[in-house]
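Researcher: Before we compare anything, I want clean individual predictions. No alignment, no superposition, just each chain on its own. First chain goes here; please echo the sequence and then give the structure tokens.
Model: Echoing the first chain and its structure:
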Amino acid sequence: MTARVDNERRVELTRTRTSVGLWFGLIGAPAAALASTVINYSAVDRACVGNNSLVLHLLTLLFLIVALAAGFTAWWYRQRIGDWPATAAGMLPRARFMTTVGILLAIVATFGMILQWIPIFFLGPCYGT
């Protein structure tokens, strides 16, 4: 019975949808944090001209939701994969590693985006210009 369950897990990991989900869980949050930094940096001039920081808040919130979705995706796949010996080789331990690192990266990226969001609340878009 255990071999059948393990085989079903292996078959599920070979599907393209599962592979894309694992990669999104791994690199989705850092990519969202990078995109948030780059796009918010570009949007500051526009927000300063209009003296309205709403666009900066919306962009940050959007990328924060993407980072949280990536973290949730990694957590969801980790729950589906289940427990596996850390010294084993193959697809299941590799997927477990990807999901673990994805969860940790999502936590760090989310925390970083929240830290970058705080000055928008207190300083506004035109501070220092």
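Researcher: Okay. Second chain, same rules.
Model: Second chain and its structure:
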Amino acid sequence: MHIKGMDGVKQSKANLNKERKGGVKKDIIIAPSILAADFSKLAYEIKRAQNAGADWIHIDVMDAHFVPNLTIGATVVKDLRKVTDMVLDSHLMIENPQDYVDDFLKAGSDVITVHIEAVKNVKSIIKKIKSFNVKAGISIKPKTPVSAIKDLLGMVDMVLIMTVEPGFGGQGFIKSVLPKIKQVRERFSGYIQVDGGVNDVTAKEAIKAGANVLVAGTYLFGAKDMAKAIKGLKGIKA
């Protein structure tokens, strides 16, 4: 059975796996965060996002130690892999991610991002992720300087710049982070993802600064018309 939107999903995964040949990737990718979805019907919520035109699914993994909230683990990623071919983007907001990265690799993640603030042997983790043909990302909190990841820009596929303090959804976008997006874009041609407080207004600012992957939870899953909301984030008139 053909699922509406699947052609776009296949194209999204094809683009994810395609080698970049110079220049900045211009397509804007929308990654709804399931943190804001209804967990009583998660498979339905994923398909709803897919049908609305979402490109990736963003999975916020929190351990109640690195951030003050507890969410989901690799088992959920494994189950999501059974119900969708969409790009599964696992954001590990956890201490000692090296102890858990194997689980998320085996579960079917297409992208795995770890925080520079949470790990010491970051280069070995990045190499391990990429050895599984999975995209590797590095993230910084709003107060962490870009200089903390400058030596990693040649290794990673994506830089995630938090635009809220990680831990809870529904927070306001921290505009003082915008210059950091510009700093990274000056040195990095890959994916720059922003996560937190993204809506149709802040999306424009983030894109202008150089972001090309937008994570949104409440704004999308709480929208009356998710397809229209996704177009709004991409700057497409409905």
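Researcher: What stands out in the second chain?
Model: The chain has a mean pLDDT of 88. Additionally, Residues 89 and 130 are 14 Å apart (CA to CA).
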